[in-house]
Amino acid sequence: MKCENCSKKECSKKQKNDDTQSTSVDALSSSDGSEEKNEFDTLANAKILLSDCLACDSCMTLEEGARVFQQNQKEFFRVLNLNKKCDTSKHKVLAVSLCPQSLPYFAAKFNLSVNEAAKRLCGFLKSLGVHYVFDTTIAADFSILESQREFVQRYQRRNQEEHALPMFASACPGWIRYAERVLTNLVTSHICTAKSPQQIMGSLVKGYFARQQNLSPDKIFHVVVAPCYDKKLEALREDFYTALYNSAEVDCVLTSGEIVQIMEQKNVSMKDVTEVAVDSLFDDLKEGDVVRHDGKRSDGYLEHIFKHAAKELFGVDVKEITYKALKNKDFQEVTLEKDGETVLRFAAAYGFRNIQNMVLKLKKGKFLYHFVEVLACPGGCLNGKGQAQTEDGKPDRALLAQMEEVYAAIPVRLPETNLHVQRMYQDWLEGMDSKKVQDTLHTTYSAANQSTSSLDIKW
């Protein structure tokens, strides 16, 4: 069969085994061949396996497929090359945002501390011509805080609204795409409306930062370095686009592996790069040491929401969370008991086999959970298919184990303690309950009209 997004290439449909390989597809070049030669013409096109894109088959239109495959190294270097030319009217401010789950990959791969990895990655990107390098942890702060508040509100009105609970996390674009394109509104109505960290980072860079720098959003080219290919699809969402300025909030997503590929093509070793402090969104400040959120291999939505809900709804101060593995290590639950009754029941469901089982139980009315942290990749975000893969597309388990060790050692910072976030709620977002908070930090998810043939996709 043929996918809509690669009409000239045969591809095999995603099978139930999450490690199944598919045919590779050359990323489309953003050049029409008429551009003059430049120093970056020798760069290879990015290779993307259809198994890496969790939203294949009928989930992508022809136009979306073309736009996804244009998010590659050549597009990144096209903008860098424009900035070297004399026509300043075409110059862009180039900003790169780093996902926290990408940094352990660079640290483990090059035998560096996570702080060294962040600074050397920043130094490498700036040596190419990037102007600003940001850490997306602040965007995750906003996303978690808004998710916490929404869960408490949904829990309080659970008896009045049919679809208030359970609430599903909204940070994983592979899960979101699957839910919107394959599942029904019965499922999408349960998805948290808080935007993902990538989407919020787009608003911060093209909204808050652009205003601080007195720049029009379309004058900024915003690149996100992420652990998975589905982030490329997420950048194409219509609600991630500012029509007034004809500007996407994220212009290009490069995976961690694609950044390493650039280093190899430029014959640069991470250990030879000068360390440069990561930039802050605020004035001329620089970021300090890398911090993360609770959670073993992700942004920790389950842990933060669970602790917040326990305190807000039941006055219980939870210090440590105990996970109970159920059918497999990628489906675990966490419960809170009070006066002999289970008052909160959360789950983490990673990988599409667990997601399908979860959805089946929801449709049968046998769902016991109040909140589920849903991630498309088995093992979570650190195991994103844009990093820690061997040459034949299999997970590099030894490297992944090192990454998990590196990630676990990063200090945890509660989103509530970030003073910059608190100030931005007041100064930029006009208060925590404002319309601007809803417009900037939230979105809506709904099932697309699907033909019956698309509903039997087996992952």
Specify the CATH homologous superfamily of the largest domain.
Fe-only Hydrogenase (Larger Subunit), Chain L, domain 3
Overall tally of structural domains: 2
Low-confidence stretches: 1-53, 450-459
Question: Can you count the beta strands?
Answer: 13
Kindly provide the radius of gyration, computed on alpha-carbon positions and rounded to a whole number of angstroms: 21 Å
Q: What can be said about the biggest beta sheet?
A: 5 strands, mixed
Mean pLDDT across all amino acids = 83
Structural class: alpha/beta
CATH level-two architecture of the largest domain: 3-Layer(aba) Sandwich
The gross shape turns out to be: globular
Region (Disordered): 1-36
Subunit structure: Interacts with LMNA and binds to the farnesylated C-terminal domain.
Keywords: Nucleus, Phosphoprotein
Biased composition (Basic and acidic residues): 1-19
Question: Which descriptors apply to this entry?
Answer:
459 residues; alpha/beta; Rossmann fold; Fe-only Hydrogenase (Larger Subunit), Chain L, domain 3; 2 domains; 4-stranded parallel sheet; 13 strands; disordered C terminus; Fe_hydrogenase
